[in-house]
Amino acid sequence: MTRLIILLVLFIASSFTSFHQPPTIKLALLKYSGGGDWYNDVNSLKNLAKFCNDNLRTNFDLEYATVEPGSAEIFNYPITYATGHGNMLFSDLEARNMRAYLEGGGFLILNDDFGLDPFVRPTMKKVFPELDFVELPFSHPIYHQKYKFSNGVPKIHEHDGKPAQGFGLIYQGRLVCFYNFETDLGDGWDDVHNDPQELRNKALQMGANIVQFVFGQ
Fold it and tell me: What value does the mean pLDDT take over residues 135-142?
């Protein structure tokens, strides 16, 4: 936990430094088991890091880390991103480690890349048996950081044609996980899907809001 708190302090301090300074922090991609394509988004985190550096004055390394849910290394990264279309499984050890990470100040972004929902809900229930995903109201601060999203998380990908939704896990009053459903923010962060620039901008702006919220809550 101390390591994570120190990283948070370094991140906030980096917001006031020149971009000529070496990067001080990385985003992390979660490599989970179960057969789901955790590796699906090729450039999403790199592009999000660059957008945040350009627009929030952060100092992210553009090269992200890859971490496993049961590893000690995950505590080095205050924000971890998980995506995919299929199965996601945590062992008992991984679930305990993820809980310790999130309780200790870490934050998890879950991205439904279409088909993740039936798997991610029981997996996160294993991490926090006492918690349920709750839909965040449009008034939630995560939608009102530098960029304003008065109607909640933007719709990026068609999926089943349903409205985009943003869910969260709230532990002791703190949002520890943001789950975007029926939208696929990661698709918009990436640059290989030929999304219209307007949608890519909305996705990146929402991503920047998440980052800004995490370090400000």
Answer: 98
In this prediction, residues 92-115 reach a mean pLDDT of: 96
Q: What is the CATH number of the domain that holds 147?
A: 3.40.50.12140
Q: Annotate 93-142 with DSSP letters as a single string.
A: HHHHHHHHHHHTT-EEEEEE-SS-HHHHHHHHHHH-TT---EEPPTTSGG
pLDDT, residue 4, reads 54
Residue of 217, 144, 143, 132 lying closest to 169 (CA atoms): 132
Q: How many helices and strands, by DSSP H and E, does the chain display?
A: 6, 7
Name the average pLDDT for the chain: 90
Q: Which amino acid is at 116?
A: L
Write out the H or E segment, with its range, that includes residue 214. Answer: helix 197-214
The pLDDT tens digits of the residues spanning 19-37 come to 457 788 999 999 999 998 8
Report the DSSP pairing between strands 174-181 and 28-30. unpaired
DSSP-assigned beta bridge partners for residue 83:
111
pLDDT, average across residues 171-187: 96
**How many domains are there within the chain?**
1
CB of 56 within 8 A of CB of 146?
Answer: yes
The number of beta carbons lying within 10 Å of the beta carbon of residue 23 is: 15
Q: Which domain holds residue 81?
A: 2-214
